[in-house]
Amino acid sequence: AAGDGFGFASPSNEIILPNREFQSRGYNRVLVSTESSTAANETAVALRSRLNSGRQERVSVQDFSSVAENIGQTFQALNAFLIGIGSISLLVAGVSILNVMLMSTVERREEIGVMRAVGFQKRDVLKIMLSEAVLLGLIGGLVGIAFSLVAGMAINQFIVGDALLAFRPSNFLYIGLAFAFGVGTSLLSGLYPAWKAANERPVEALRS
Questions:
Q1: Domain range for 165
Q2: Does the model's pTM come out above 0.90?
Q3: Rounded to an integer, what distance in angstroms lies between the CA atom of residue 183 and that of residue 189?
Q4: What is the spatial distance between Cα 100 and Cα 39, in angstroms, rounded to a whole number?
Q5: Mean pLDDT, all residues of the chain
Q6: Are residues 95 and 53 both part of a single domain?
Q7: Do 97 and 145 share a domain, yes or no?
């Protein structure tokens, strides 16, 4: 018969009944359709006041606008969390590049002195050091993009069963912005070490 079904059988002391015996009688959900969102809100308010006249809520009335608002708030909180994580990551990356460039300046002080002694101008040394900082940012950005795409493919495959969703055209805008921020952070972090290297006095640098 329609609606009949049976559970798993066991040979020991069990009674097998159709699944319909455990189904609830009556209705547990009613969908009300209106012509507009304004009418939906007014209908929801009227149903709440009519069906829940006492202090106890007997019927839960929910309109799609409140559902959409809750979903929007959830995504806003998630975006704020991800932006915070990304900002902390950029800060850590910037400090790391700053330390690397400062150590490179100290270790190459004699080399910088030789370059200045043979005729390199301050701007030439500045360009060399900034180029190295940008190169670090480019390498780090490419590695980060590759890791993000692999992680996105794994997450999409696990959640929706389609790993190629990570390559949607809209995602490449965010990938490009992240790459630009990474390179820009590297450039800003390399400004002070580059300035410090460019202003080294050749005589003092050669003595070190």
A1: 88-207
A2: no
A3: 10
A4: 62
A5: 80
A6: no
A7: yes
